[in-house]
Design goal:
The chain is mainly α. It has helices at 6-14, 18-39, 50-67, 78-96, 103-107, 117-120, 127-147, 150-161, 166-172, 177-197, 202-210. The longest helix is centred in the first third of the chain and has 22 residues, at 18-39. The chain is globular, with a radius of gyration of 18 Å.
Amino acid sequence: MNARSNESWLADLRSSGLAHEEALHDLREIIQKGLPYALTRWLSADSPLFQPLVEEVTQETLLRVLDQLDTFEGRSMFTTWAHKIAIRLALTELRRKRWRDSSLEELTENEDAPPPSGLLADSQASPESSAERADMFARVRRILEEELTPKQREALVLLGIQDMPMEEAARRMKTNRNALYKLLHDARLRLKKRLALEDLTPQDLLTAFESR
């Protein structure tokens, strides 16, 4: 693996084709090597949660890095900046493990938000509440159909709702890991812009699916 300057990381990750794929592959290896050392401060390496958490956080970190390239100010090494994102995501995920189906919220990038009230609500919802949820789900489904391609929707369902491992989702969709990262990255950007236009929050999106 050749050492890259900060400028090279940014240029390669913003590019397309082979340069982009190689940079994404290299960054993934760097994060996966460094993250376990940081995580052992909070979670034993012997825990059955450890390796799945490393894989999950690595995947999310790559997506977050691609989303936030324009925020990198060059005050540190690019890889140090990426590691800080990984550690923050890992700690957030450890706190979230007690809540179910949180991965959709993560895909829409709102790591510091409290759990949506729908996750803690009584299962015996009032008719008014049920109607509101039905309306919200209809809005969410319309947004997904209008904004995302069939492939983007499939990736979001497999990874965000069914919580399928990345490798298995890639095989199911007959693609590779890097192409799937790019698919999710583009889907997230489109969803974030549309949610803002619709005056919806990521919590609304998660609650709509959680209530189904």
